[in-house]
Amino acid sequence: MIRFAQTAARVLTVAIVTLPLLGGLACASEYKAGEIEVEHPWARATPGRAKNGAAFMKLENHGGTDDRLMAASGDVANRVELHTHLHENGVMKMRPSGPIPVPAHGHAMLQPGSFHVMMIGLKAPLVEGEMFPLTLTFEKSGSVTINVMVKSVGAGAGNTGMKHGHGMKKN
Question: For residue 99, what is the DSSP state?
Fold first, then answer.
């Protein structure tokens, strides 16, 4: 009986030590909707009393048919929209983008300076290290709910996305 208790204690200790590590792997941030894989969704922490935020990710299309990200939704903000940055008369402007194409056997990058999910009227600050859910709806692949990891305020700085044709690429 003592041997059983010692073995049980060892198993419990190993579980307590390794479960957080496995939990990190479970949050490795890959989600699937049909042929679309959503990789590494993240957002920047919001400074001060900022009321808007943005989420970024890679959308990988493993299928032979083009698809489009039609919408994003979530309770994190009053409005959740698909946006992009446009260069107009020497000025960068953020605008709603409408559907975001995800080419067959290719990908679309939602990244700073390009396509992104805009969250307008945040209900609470985005805090580094926390996560929040968003639901992405694709034209052909359906919907998937993802967990977005909040990174530091300066995460992704210098990644303009401008050299990637607004983030769309055939593999």
Answer: S
Pairing between β-strand 77-88 and β-strand 142-151 as defined by DSSP bridges: unpaired
Does residue 9 or residue 102 have the better pLDDT?
Answer: 102
Bridge partners of 110, per DSSP, are 57
Could you tell me the pLDDT band of residue 2, with boundaries at 50, 70 and 90?
Answer: low
Strand partners, 102: 67
Contact between 24 and 65 under an 8 Å Cβ cutoff? The reply is no
Residues 6+ apart with CB under 8 A from 135: 72, 73, 74, 143, 144, 145, 146
Arithmetic mean of pLDDT, 67-95 = 91
For residues 83 and 97, is the Cβ–Cβ distance under 8 A?
Answer: yes
**Torsional sign, CA 36, 68, 115, 48:** negative
Q: Span 63-88, mean pLDDT?
A: 94
What does the pLDDT read at residue 3? 58
Identify which of 138, 133, 164 has the alpha carbon closest to the alpha carbon of residue 149. 133
Decide: 78 and 124 in contact? Cβ < 8 Å: no
